[in-house]
Amino acid sequence: MAKIRLGMVGGGIGSFIGPMHQLGAQLSERFELVAGAFSSDPERARAAGANYGVAPDRCYAGHAEMIAAEAARPDGIQVLAIATPNHLHLPAALAAIEAGLHVMSDKPATATLAEAEQLRDALAAGTSLYALTFTYSGFPIIREARARIAAGMIGAVRKVVVTFNQGWLANALEQAGNPRAAWRMDPSRSGVGGCISDIGTHAFHLAEYVTGDTVSEIVADVRTHVPGRALDDDANILMRFAGGASGVLASSQVAVGERLGFTLQVFGEKGALHWHAEAPETLRFVAADGAVSLLSPISPGLLVREPLPPGFGGSILAGFAVQYRDFAKAIDGDTALIGTVLPGIEDGVRTMRFVETAVRASADRAGWTALA
């Protein structure tokens, strides 16, 4: 089967997320990275391209140049991967849609809710497929948790607790010139949210994805602890789900000592599910009688099977690989995957609505606020 030709915008020297996209696409066995606008600096662009194995003449200074040049080639790109800071997501995606390219974007969809809604309108008017790498929803064991809840194996969901805590921004790294910290704490590049947009959206999306339910109301406490910051570095949210469940979401980037404190607990009428990103291949299933099962992607009796190379089932690359594989299937014709098991633009709009509602409600001390 011919590989789908992928171009990337962003992901230059020093990027973390760019290599994740490239390696995940490669592990999916369906894509090949053949072009990129890795940097506006020609030398850095070529250096990044060399790392990715991209020919020098297919390393461009920007997404517009790449899209135009690739359109003139018989072997031009078919999909654009977006691995830039948030403020560049919309222009790159719009240019791709105008050119008829499919889009695989890093999360969040855009820097603002208005931009996400603009992107949704553009997709509706065009022919491009669009997906978002809310990567953890590609983990095989997370999909097993989702399937078990959908099958009624824990009964009606009563409570959801999701946390995503990191400590890497406990000090003002952005003021010391750290580029990864600088754009995340810059409203002109990150958008209205800091921590809540960067990792809080992962937690929010996972809570809705696994339960199959939507959050209808929130109480938000979004705060900044490090002096001099323009954006939040800590967020705590109470949630009410449309189906009646209660929820708690806590995300922080000033939790000293935490590296990947991402956890999910779902409690139902007759069972519970527990997952922790530091043991990402393990799902703890607790039955009403107290019996505990520890499940992995190779356990017998699973409802979901996501074949992956041995040893990859719990790495972040697993999520990227599974989602790129899903996207290839959608390109092949199974478009129903997008917006169901594979996050799409509606997930992008919804998570940006969550961010902006939480930031505004916290500032206004608004109490329970509808998440329309």
Number of helices: 11
Shape: globular
The value of Rg in angstroms is 20 Å
Assess the beta-strand content as a share of residues: 15-25%
Q: Average pLDDT value?
A: 96
- Secondary structure category: alpha/beta
Elements, N to C (H/E): EHEHHEHEHEHEHHHEEEEEEEHHE
In order across it, which strands form the biggest sheet?
13-12-11-10-6-9-8-7-14
Major sheet description: 9 strands, mixed
Percent of residues in helical segments? Answer: 25-40%
Distance between the termini: 43 Å
Instruction: Return residue spans where pLDDT drops below 50 for at least 5 consecutive residues.
Output: none
- Total count of strands: 14
Please explain how this structure is put together.
This protein has 372 residues and is α/β, with parallel strands linked by helices. It contains 11 helices and 14 strands. It has a 9-stranded mixed beta sheet. A 5-stranded parallel beta sheet has the order 2-1-3-4-5, with helices on both faces. Strand 3, helix 4 and strand 4 form a beta-alpha-beta unit. Helix 1 packs across helix 10, helix 5 runs antiparallel to helix 11 and helix 9 packs across helix 11. It is globular and about 60 Å long. The N and C termini lie far apart (43 Å).
